[in-house]
Design goal:
Length: 181
Amino acid sequence: MLNVTLENAWQVLVIFLIPFGGGIPAGVLMAQSKGIQWPIMMLLYLISDIILACVFEPILMLFMAAGKRIPFLMRVSEAFKLTIKKMTKLYGNSTGVFALIMIAFGVDPMTGRAVAVAAGHGFIAGWMIAIAGDMMYFTLLMVSTLWLNSIIGDGTTTMLIIMACMILLPMLIRKIRQNKT
């Protein structure tokens, strides 16, 4: 029997809505402390992504509309398109679904959605791609956080280590890639 109260689920969902990766280990540890099992954690995180989609999509559409009329935003749009080309090169010369999922996994779902728009995907398909990448990222962090916390036994230390890895590992990977070229 699931022992999940609406109040506990709401508290975890609010943590998951924090728009940076630190909300994931904090939310996972909070959920664990409240007896919420991993499938419910994943459902709550999926709900947070759907809420994000509903909030972010109108902002994206306004930005795109303004980008067609305002010279400064036109330049930002062109710079963004160049950035997309550079990002997708890491995953091959494609803006296919796999490359777009990997961008959402490696950056964030908002960027994943923006790239999906640039690749021609509509609201539903674009957000499905972005959310798929973000859910993969969440799963990796959730499993890592739960595993590390089972070893360390201290939520604060676990969260600090996971957050340090979230920041430092991508920088280290970029540095290694730069040295290879």
